[in-house]
Design a protein that fits this description.
CATH superfamily: Decaprenyl diphosphate synthase-like
Oligomer: single chain
Order of helices and strands: EHHEHEHEHHEEHH
Helix content: 40-55%
Number of helices: 8
Radius of gyration: 19 Å
Low-confidence stretches: 252-259
Number of domains: 1
CATH class: Alpha Beta
Distance between the termini: 33 Å
Strand order of the largest sheet: 3-4-2-1-5-6
Strand content: 5-15%
Largest sheet: 6 strands, parallel
Bound molecules: farnesyl diphosphate
């Protein structure tokens, strides 16, 4: 991180789609899994870079609900890589005071991976540093479906009336419950899509797309994304003059509409 950057206000929560591992490997005549392995280095760099810059939460999209449709060999290589990466990285993250959490449908994962995930969460649960949320077997639509089921069950059991359901009621049933909404979304690999990531939570997030392939994404690229973020004026549906007045009065603008 450069000295110039220390004066820039960091996003509280960064969410990342790590795309381009396969193309990175193909360019080098290597198997796709080599790209995923190389991607672990970028995961490390981005975790370190975000922690150094004062980010409170970092969500990484490691495996989507749709990724199950990939060739079985690639799916199983990825699952093995997750187990290995957890074994190798969690102690360092713990020493650095980071918290690890997983979001997604963990019932779909092997017992071994579920165990490694639970151990990582337990070991780091009381740390006070940045929380790293790893999305595995996650889909934004799946998240909304599981939240809807929870709410329906509460209604059926008589603990909640349908007319009591507010935005917060839904947020509290989603996987990112208790985490501030993402301020900055980064997608590497050139595509400009959300691809069923955090559909509800990205409502006001600043979106940053880069052609850089994930294994080539390091601290300089992270700095460029943060520089982009620092230049954005986040209006939360207000007009610029209202925002200026809110800043002068040092009050937070209220979210009034979704544009
Ligand atoms: C997308 O690239 C990447 C993935 C589906 C896997 C991401 C996994 C890692 C970076 C491994 C480590 C992660 C953690 C959190 C331990 P792609 O395969 O779609 O690339 P392509 O678009 O070039 O084919």
């Amino acid at each position: 991180m450069s000295d110039k950057e220390t004066s820039v206000k960091a996003p509280r929560h960064v969410a990342v789609i790590m795309d381009g591992n396969g193309r990175w490997a193909k360019k080098r005549f290597m198997p796709r899994v080599a790209g995923h392995r190389a991607g672990v280095k970028s995961v490390r760099a981005v975790i370190e870079g975000c922690a150094q810059r004062g980010v409170e939460a970092l969500t990484l999209f490691a495996f989507s609900s749709e990724n199950w449709k990939r060739p079985a060999e690639e799916v199983s290589s990825l699952m093995n890589l997750f187990v290995q990466a957890l074994e190798r990285e969690v102690d360092t993250m713990h020493r650095n005071g980071l918290r690890v959490r997983f979001i997604g449908d963990r019932n779909l994962l092997s017992q071994q991976l579920q165990q490694s995930m639970a151990q990582a969460e337990q070991l780091t649960a009381n740390n006070a540093g940045m929380v790293v949320l790893i999305a595995v077997a996650y889909g934004g639509r799946w998240d909304l479906v599981q939240a809807t089921k929870k709410l329906a069950q509460l209604c059926v059991a008589g603990h909640l009336k349908p007319e009591q359901i507010q935005e917060d009621t839904i947020s509290d049933c989603l996987e990112l419950k208790g985490v501030p909404e993402p301020d900055l979304f980064i997608r590497t690999g050139g595509e400009q899509r959300i691809s069923n990531f955090l559909l509800w939570n990205l409502a006001y997030t600043e979106l940053y797309f880069t052609d850089v392939l994930w294994p080539d994404f390091g601290d300089d690229e992270l700095a460029a994304a943060f520089a982009y973020f620092s230049q954005r004026q986040r209006r939360f549906g207000l007009i610029a003059e209202q925002l200026a007045a809110a800043v002068e009065g040092d009050t937070k603008p209220t979210v009034s509409e979704s544009r």
